[in-house]
Each structure stands twice: as C-alpha cells, then as structure tokens.
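Project standup — Tuesday

K.O.: blocked on the structure for the chain from last sprint. Re-posting the sequence here as requested.
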Amino acid sequence: MSQQPITTAMVLAAGLGTRMAGAGNGLPKPLVQLAGRTLLDHVLDRHLEAGTERVIVNVHHKADLIESHLQSRRAPRIEISDERDALLDTGGGVTKALPRLGAGAFLIHNSDSVWIEGIGANLKRLVDAWDETKMDCLMLLALASQSLGYHGRGDFDFAADGRIKRRAADQKLVPFAFAGVSIAHPRLFAGSPEGAFSLNKVWDGAIAKGRAYGLRMEGTWMHVGSPDALALAEQRLSGEAVR
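H.V.: unblocked you, prediction finished:
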C-alpha cells in the first residue's frame, strides 16, 4: 500500500497540570523533570528517534516558559500553536493547529506520556501499522494492569479485526488504557465543533464508523500526571539504568 510518510506530530502541552503542581516548583507540567530531563523533552526525544521531522507544540499555561525552553532544541523542528487566549482542550487544540499539520496523517502525543520500550520502538510500530484506507485514527493502547500512574478501569478493548471498542456501561474492567499517543487523519475532525472539546468526541465518531483502530504497546507505559506517578516513574527508570 502506498501512502505518505508520517513526519509531523502534535504534542499537547497546553493543559493546566493542576495535579502536578506540588512537584513542579512553579513550572508547567511539561517542564517537570523526570530522570534529569523534562517530560516534554522525553516526548520530543522519542519523536527524534522515530524520524519525526516537525512537531507542533500547543501552549497555554505558563506558555512563555515552555516557548523559552524549546528555543534550545534544534531537532525535531518545533512550531508553536498559541492558545494563550483560550484553553481549547485536546480536540479543540488539534483543530486549531490543523492548517499547520498538513493534508496527511499526523501523530498526536500527550506531554505526560512516556514509556520504557519493549520489543521494537513503539512510535515506529504505530506508524508502520497505519493504513489510511481503513483508519481515521490509530491509538496506542497499553495493558492497564502493567502501567504506571494509571488507576482507571481500562478505556478500550480490541475487536477481532483490530478495531477498538470502548468499555461498556455494564463492564467493570477492560484490559487496555489509552497510552497518550495516536495517529489521526485530518478527516477525523470533519464537522468538529468550534472552541474547546475533547478528542473523545471525534474518537467516538470514528468508532461508530468502524474506522478507529488500536495497536498494543510493547513495554511499560508511564502516565506521569501527578507527583505520585512522577515518583514511581523515577523509581522505575532508575531501576532500568542500574540494569
């Protein structure tokens, strides 16, 4: 199958990060340090390794600090999507940046989503699994029971053909959590509302059409969204360094 290579990503760094405030020493969550590097740099380093050429980073809370920090990076090439005037949530933030993201598929990555690789590099696996003829979105899903910093009952399960389905109202648990990374085609956002909205809205539309797929993450996903999760991630990464 012939399709355009995926070389552009959006990193979501505009959130308020209120749960992380106690560990941030006044910094926005994307600039909180984990194992000697900011969460944002952990994410950007993954994209550099994966061959992502251009990353759009959205900013709102303490935007000046994030912009100043990013000036020291040379690769990937960084562009800022400025949301200082209004916080647009995840879906609204991507929609605002669509003119910058281009006509083809692109990656979306939460700035608090990091991991320890397993077999193969997960971003490359995700890009290799993308099929724009049948997908509007492809989500990286982690086994919830083996993840750090995730305390929910699971978000999704797989159908036999790789499509994803949400946890039903009568299900206590499903195996997989969204690992904070996905691929999206611009058509996913067709008919999106104005202003702030969650990516869940467009994902639900793709699920209803049978065009939302998932890929199981290999390795250990760490959702670094709170001081407790940060401490667990530090501990796990220290153990990996010793090994």
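K.O.: great, moving the ticket to review. The chain has seven helices and 13 strands. The two ends are 40 Å apart (CA to CA).
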